[in-house]
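job 3f2a | input accepted
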Amino acid sequence: MIDKKLNKYFDHTLLKPEATPDQIDALCKEAISADFYSVCVNSCYVPQVSKALSGSSVKTCSVIGFPLGACSTEVKAFETKYACSNGASEVDMVINVGMLKSKNYEYVKNDISEVVKTAHSFDALVKVIIETCLLSDDEIVKACELSEAAGADFVKTSTGFSTGGAKASDVRLMKETVGDRLKVKASGGIRDLKTVEAMLEAGADRIGASAGVKIIDEFEGR
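job 3f2a | predicted structure (222 res):
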């Protein structure tokens, strides 16, 4: 049985490169109307979103190093500072997948840690996007362990811009790895209530989706 406050699981998301300021405004209006948990956007839109959401309970969330995660640690830390300085209370950073796959674990941990230190100095939460579709099960476990060691608050499945999105089996593996110490966000390709239910059952604490309004309508019409 889903919590009656299903809306509060959702980060209402628009990350497409062609997204316009008018579309971002519409996203914020939808999020306020539905009382979602947050609005998640690329960092250039954080000031606009923070202003639009002012006075509501909806939080501002920014992606960092999105969607590849292959920019330098310094760039990620700077983008985090920019986002948090302009009103983001959560940031979703992409790990350096190539460094993880080459077993350069110290790099990956430091990459996450620098974002965590910056975000936490603003009392902002950090979700680490590990891009599960590119990882083996062992690599998913390792990415979760490194995220925890670096002080992150969440691990997150996907950007939604790679070869695949969230799978319930990956969410379950992530939750088994981090337990109650970190939270898990499922994101990428979540477009209906059945998928949301599967993610929550597998252990997800948050859902990232652009189809949140449609999903809530489906839930309320059940």
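job 3f2a | Strands lie at 10-14, 38-41, 59-64, 90-94, 125-129, 154-156, 183-187, 206-209.
job 3f2a | closed
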